[in-house]
From TrEMBL:
Membrane spanning stretches: 12-34, 46-65, 77-96, 111-135, 156-175
InterPro entries in the record: DUF420
Pfam families cross-referenced by the UniProt entry: DUF420
Keywords assigned by UniProt, alphabetized: Membrane, Transmembrane, Transmembrane helix
Protein name: Putative membrane protein
C-alpha cells in the first residue's frame, strides 16, 4: 500500500472541505434573494455558453494529452477549472436575483427534462472532488494516479457541461425576461 505524504493529506483535507462547502454555500445562496434587486436575466445564456465552451475544451484537452501536448493540456484544464468557477459565480448571482424558472413542457419531454436536470445536479456536485483529486494528483507528481482519476473525472465533467447546455435550451422558452 502506498504511503500518503503529509502534503497529500493536507490536499485531501482541503478537497473534502471544498467539496462539502461549495454545494452547501450554493444551496444557501440559491435560497437567498437580494432585496430589491433586478433579475440579472442576461446571465443564463452566458453561463450556458460557458458550459458549452467547457465541454469543447475538455475534449480538446483529452486530444492534446493523447498527442503528447502536455503544456496545452495543462493550460486547457486550468482554463476549464476557471470557467467552471466563473459559471458557478454567475449561476449563483442569477438565482440570488431571480425567481426559479419552472419547466413548462409536458408529457415525455417533461420527464426527460427532469431526468437530465437531476442527473446534472447530482453529478455536478460529485465532479467537484473528482476534479480536485485529479488535479492534486498531477500537482503531487503522481501521473499514474492522475490518469486513473481522469478516466472517471473526464466523462462526468463532460456530461455535466453538456447537460448544462441541454437544460438551458430546454428551460429557456420559460424564462421571464
Amino acid at each position: 500500500m502506498e504511503e500518503i505524504t503529509l502534503k497529500e493529506k493536507q490536499f485531501n483535507r482541503w478537497i473534502m472541505v471544498i467539496s462539502l462547502a461549495i454545494p452547501l454555500v450554493v444551496a444557501l445562496l440559491f435560497r437567498y434573494k437580494i432585496p430589491d434587486s433586478k433579475p440579472i436575466s442576461f446571465l443564463p445564456p452566458i453561463y450556458a455558453t460557458i458550459n458549452g465552451i467547457t465541454a469543447i475544451l475538455l475534449v480538446v484537452a483529452v486530444i492534446a494529452i493523447r498527442n503528447g501536448r502536455i503544456k496545452l493540456h495543462q493550460r486547457l484544464m486550468i482554463t476549464n477549472i476557471v470557467l467552471s468557477a466563473l459559471f458557478l459565480v454567475m449561476y449563483v448571482a442569477y438565482h440570488m436575483t431571480s425567481e426559479t424558472t419552472m419547466y413548462g413542457g409536458s408529457g415525455t419531454l417533461k420527464y426527460v427534462y427532469y431526468f437530465i436536470l437531476m442527473t446534472h445536479i447530482v453529478l455536478s456536485i460529485s465532479v467537484i472532488p473528482l476534479v480536485l483529486i485529479t488535479y492534486s494528483k498531477i500537482y503531487l507528481d503522481d501521473e499514474e494516479s492522475h490518469r486513473h482519476w481522469a478516466r472517471y473525472t473526464f466523462p462526468i465533467w463532460l456530461y455535466v457541461a453538456v447537460t448544462g447546455v441541454v437544460v438551458y435550451i430546454m428551460i429557456s422558452p420559460y424564462y421571464q425576461y
